[in-house]
Every structure is written in structure tokens, then in C-alpha cells.
Design brief:
Length: 413
């Protein structure tokens, strides 16, 4: 089959395209950041798959409908693909789902699984036995899926452009919970506790009430070693070679899921130890003089807090170059953003990466931040010059955001 992917430059879509090509399909793709969009691109296609960022009136979609070429959204195609495998694992949550999905893949790697995530990781195209995917809540797209096993990392208010309230978002998670098989719930996450009620639910966390619980957390030069207890018995000690206490939760969810599926604890331990992180998640890029430079995908106040808690525990002074992601998120979580970013010593605030939205209000966050912390407001093209002029003042600089700020960070090295 000839499949054309609209919005192929996104990590999630490009991974689906690679899987389709591996399955023997002829694949083509378009993206505004590549060759743009053109109605002619769809003329030889037998199926169109489009990302959630593609508008209904996109010229290629319009042409596909005119020619009666079948179209599927990314989530619909993902659901169709998942049914081709014997066992489907999903990871959902407002934070940490990409990392947890990749960890689960490493824990199950000896079973040759196929991996689908929304970030750049090693190619994980395996056999048709096991499919592992992150399940995104944006526009309720995860409700197209019916996994056999689902890890719920956490629930937090996000995507105000499609969820009017935390209550509405929790209702979507509850529905996904109902249409999943065995569910693994972070028992320490306050907004996830309402999910701990079915027989096929397994809990994990630091709390000793959790069925899988982490104890005796010991820092190492690269991460942590910790003991995992299953109910009242010591399962094993595990070593995680990425930093951040929040990543211990991510590892614990993957461990609980893999062990419950029947994977040997030694294979799980080896897989977790091999895992060295996901691109743009506390990724160290290099040094400018004595200043360490990182790039991170954090674009929600909780993620910013986790990243800055990690960095400020290692560095005496930290500057953040922050690119807000969507106007609606910034407006709805304004005070939370200001509180989270105030943990840094300086914030360099860039114009909002609007993504699917339109707007021009970049002043509210700046005005609130300048009452709390040193803040500089500059354009994206000026950011690297700022770094070159100011790096001596900081032990660490972190480029932060889910937009295209990462491209600027990599130009330094």
C-alpha cells in the first residue's frame, strides 16, 4: 500500500512512517518544515495519515477527500497498527510518558518489541509480537486505543485548548483506564489516586502501600540505585543511569509492568541499567568555558520544576532559556509557570512557540516573572549571542521548551 503521512516531521509520525516502511508499504510524507504542503503530493496515495496538528482545511487533506482517498488521523492509524500485534503496551500521563515508554522497551528488549514514541530514540522496530507505544491525551487521541497493559505515570492539568478543566481531563483518563487491560497506577500522584479501584490495577510508588515500591534510594554519579519491593518481598536492586527523582517513578512503572508480564527480573534490571535517556530530556550538549549547557523538552510547570530541582541540586547558579509552548497553556497556567521558573537565577524569555494556535501575548509571563527574578526578553535569533556574552556568570545554562528552541541550542556545538 502507498501511504502518505501529512506532518511527517514530528517524531511520532516519523516513527509510524518507519514502521509502515518496514512492513512493506511505500511511504511518502510532507511537512511545513520540509517541502511544505501541496495537493499533488497525495495523488498516488492509497491511504492518508495526518497528525493532530494538521488543520481540516489543509490543502492535501482537501485534495484527498476530493479524490476519495481514505484518511486516518494519527491516533486512528496507531490504533489500527496496534491490532496487528499479539500484545499491546501503552504508557500515558501528562509527564514522563516518553521516558517511561523507552524504559519499558529496554526492559522488554529481549522479546524483540516494536517501539513507538514521540521523541528521537534508537530505532525499535522488532517482531509482530509486542508493540509498545506512548498514548497521548491531546484531543483525547488515546481513546482510540485499547491496550492490554497501560502504565499511568501521572495526571496533571494540561492542554487547556481541548480540556476546559482538570475534571474534564480526568474524565478522559478514566475512560482510557476503563478500555485498558491491566493498569499500573502511580499511587503517589495525587490526581491519579481516583484510578486505584479495579481488580486489574497494580500500584507503584515510594509509598510502602504500593504493590511495587521503591526503597533505599542511593544516589550514584550517573543516577540512582534503589531497591524494589513487590508487596512484602524484596524483588531486586536496580540501577538507573539517568538523574532526577521523577525518573525513578518512570523506571518503577516500567519495572512493575515488565515484571507483571512475566519478564525475568534480571532481564529487567539489565534493560533499566542500559537505558541512558531520551533526546531533549536533560540532555547534556557540552561546555562553553566552564559553563555546562543542557537542552530539555520541559514546557509545563511541573516539568520545569522537576528539571530545575535537578539542575539546582548540582549547580550553584543556573540560567534558563525558556520558549513557552502555546498561548493557551501559558495563559491558563501563568502563575504556575512563574513559580516554577523562579527557581532559576535568570530566565531568558523567548517569544511563544505558537504551534497550532494564533496569538501575540508574550507580555503577561514576562511582567509576572520580573517581579520575582532576573528576566531578559529577547528574540529566538538573539539567544546564542546572549549565551556567548553571559555564560561566565552561570555554572549551567538550560535551553527549555517543546518548540524549536532545541535547534538553537545545537548550533552552539
Amino acid at each position: 500500500m502507498r501511504i502518505h503521512f501529512i506532518g511527517i516531521n514530528g517524531a511520532s509520525m516519523s516513527t509510524l512512517a518507519k514502521i509502515a516502511k518496514n512492513d512493506g508499504h511505500t511511504v511518502s510524507g510532507s511537512d511545513i518544515t520540509l517541502s511544505g504542503h501541496n495537493p499533488l503530493f497525495v495523488h498516488n496515495a492509497e491511504l492518508i495519515v495526518y497528525s493532530s496538528a494538521i488543520a481540516y482545511d489543509n490543502c492535501e487533506l482537501v485534495e484527498a477527500r476530493r479524490l476519495n482517498i481514505p484518511t486516518l488521523s494519527r491516533s486512528e492509524y496507531l490504533a489500527k497498527l496496534s491490532k496487528e500485534y499479539d500484545t499491546f503496551f501503552a504508557v500515558c500521563g501528562c509527564h514522563g510518558k516518553t521516558t517511561t515508554t523507552a524504559m519499558l522497551y529496554h526492559a522488554l528488549k529481549n522479546l524483540s518489541p516494536t517501539l513507538h514514541v514521540g521523541a528521537e530514540v534508537e530505532d525499535g522496530i522488532g517482531k509482530k509480537g509486542i508493540f509498545i507505544s506512548e498514548a497521548c491525551e491531546y484531543k483525547k487521541s488515546f481513546l482510540s486505543l485499547h491496550p492490554d497493559f497501560t502504565v499511568f505515570t501521572n495526571v496533571d492539568y494540561d492542554h487547556p485548548d481541548c480540556y476546559a478543566s482538570l475534571k474534564e481531563l480526568k474524565e478522559a483518563y478514566l475512560q482510557f483506564y476503563k478500555q485498558s487491560g491491566t493498569c499500573f497506577i502511580n499511587a503517589d500522584d495525587r490526581h491519579s489516586k481516583f484510578l486505584l479501584k479495579r481488580k486489574n490495577t497494580i500500584s507503584y510508588g515510594f509509598s510502602q502501600d504500593a504493590e511495587f515500591n521503591a526503597q533505599a534510594l542511593r544516589p550514584t554519579p550517573f543516577g540512582y540505585t534503589f531497591d524494589v519491593h513487590y508487596k512484602t518481598h524484596l524483588l531486586s536492586s536496580f540501577t538507573l543511569n539517568i538523574k532526577g527523582r521523577h525518573n525513578v517513578y518512570n523506571a518503577l512503572g516500567a519495572i512493575a509492568c515488565a515484571f507483571s508480564f512475566g519478564v525475568n527480573k534480571n532481564e529487567i534490571r539489565s534493560g533499566i541499567m542500559r537505558f541512558e535517556g531520551v533526546k531533549r530530556r536533560n540532555e547534556f550538549l557540552g561546555k562553553i568555558g566552564e559553563c555546562d549547557v543542557y537542552t530539555d523538552y520541559a514546557h509545563h510547570p511541573t516539568e520545569i520544576t522537576n528539571q530545575l530541582t535537578l539542575l539546582t541540586s548540582f549547580y550553584k547558579s543556573t540560567a534558563v532559556i525558556f520558549q513557552p509552548h502555546t498561548y493557551s497553556r501559558t495563559a491558563n497556567l501563568l502563575s504556575d509557570f512563574a513559580y516554577a521558573l523562579s527557581k532559576a537565577d535568570c530566565v531568558v524569555l523567548l517569544p511563544t512557540f505558537a504551534s497550532r494556535e494564533k496569538g501575540n501575548d508574550d507580555d503577561k509571563l514576562y511582567n509576572l516573572l520580573k517581579t520575582k527574578i532576573r528576566v531578559v526578553k529577547i528574540g529566538k535569533n538573539e539567544v546564542n549571542e546572549w549565551v556567548k556574552s553571559n555564560y561566565k556568570n552561570y555554572a549551567c545554562i538550560c535551553y527549555m521548551g517543546a518548540g524549536d528552541i532545541d535547534k538553537e541550542a545545537r548550533k552552539l556545538f
